[in-house]
Design brief:
CATH topology of the largest domain: Glucose Oxidase, domain 1
Number of strands: 12
Organism: Streptomyces laculatispora
CATH architecture of the largest domain: 3-Layer(bba) Sandwich
Distance between the termini: 55 Å
Bound molecules: oxaloacetate ion, magnesium ion
Family: Belongs to the class II aldolase/RraA-like family.
Catalytic activity: oxaloacetate + H(+) = pyruvate + CO2; 4-hydroxy-4-methyl-2-oxoglutarate = 2 pyruvate
Pfam families: RraA-like
CATH class of the largest domain: Alpha Beta
Cofactor: a divalent metal cation
């Protein structure tokens, strides 16, 4: 079932939505989705490849693997331009996030550095897999923000067979429909249903701004009670702080 969850996927993701989501972070976004009843929105066991890599935001373009079989997953078939793994590298749209469903397997690589360099050149925003990468040091040098479970140096056809592009997948235990918005940061990777992305971005950016105010108050010695989570009174104080130009600590 793809249905109306795909309704907005052809629309470009506005830069303002990208910026709001990046400023808020995956944990705050997960809270905003929880308010709407969505609990399973953070991938399990999927971490940044490089410490300090930039945040990743973009609509999902998906690739699904199943376990390999020796008669099909030969090096000759892997080299073919019909191979869906290789096609994903050429067909993932600029600005999108390539999401690779490796069914959690690190028995072979979801990607190597030649592929990462090509994606970077093509303007893809980044890559997320619930498997792992080979050539991980060289992938870090490309500067492409990437997320994985663990390094996976073996050649892809040893264990992974590509079966689908641009279809719903599972990644890190979370459903990802093409066009859903991915947000990766130092905490992990959140998946935001596309139809909710613009509203979630506004709410998450507001929540992050309130937390900026609350963090200043905590550094001044204030208790969390009555401050975080916010109350009607503390939100008025927040509004006053915003109106005053968001002053820092004296
Ligand atoms: O075997 C492959 O095609 C993947 C790889 O190592 C690379 O992209 O550098
Ligand atoms: Mg390589």
């Amino acid at each position: 079932m793809t249905g109306d969850v795909r309704v907005d996927r052809a629309e470009p993701l506005p830069d303002s939505v990208r910026a709001q989501l990046a400023s808020a972070g995956s944990a705050t976004v997960a809270n905003m989705l929880l308010r709407r009843g969505l609990r399973n929105v953070i991938m399990s066991g999927v971490q940044p490849l490089a410490a300090g890599q930039p945040s990743l935001v973009g609509p999902a373009y998906t690739l699904r693997f199943i376990p390999a079989r020796e008669d099909l997953d030969t090096l000759t078939n892997y080299a073919s331009s019909e191979n869906l793994h290789r096609r994903a590298i050429e067909e993932c749209p600029p600005g999108a996030v390539l999401v690779i469903d490796a069914f959690g397997s690190t028995a072979a690589a979801s990607m190597g550095d030649m592929m990462a360099a090509r994606l970077r050149y093509r303007g893809v925003s980044g890559v997320v897999t619930d498997g792992g990468y080979r050539d991980s040091g060289a992938i870090k040098e490309t500067g492409l923000p990437c997320y994985q479970r663990n390094n996976a140096p073996k050649a892809t056809p040893v264990a992974l067979h590509p079966v689908a592009l641009d279809q719903p997948v599972g990644c890190g235990g979370v459903a990802v429909y093409p066009g859903d918005v991915l947000l990766g940061d130092s905490d992990g990777v959140a998946v935001i249903p596309r139809a909710l992305a613009a509203d979630i971005a506004v709410e998450a950016a507001e929540a992050a701004a309130y937390e900026e105010f609350a963090a200043l108050e905590i550094r001044r010695g204030r208790s969390l009670f009555g401050l975080f989570p916010g109350t009607a009174e503390s939100r008025q104080e927040y509004d006053t702080w915003v109106a005053a130009g968001r002053p820092g600590l004296e």
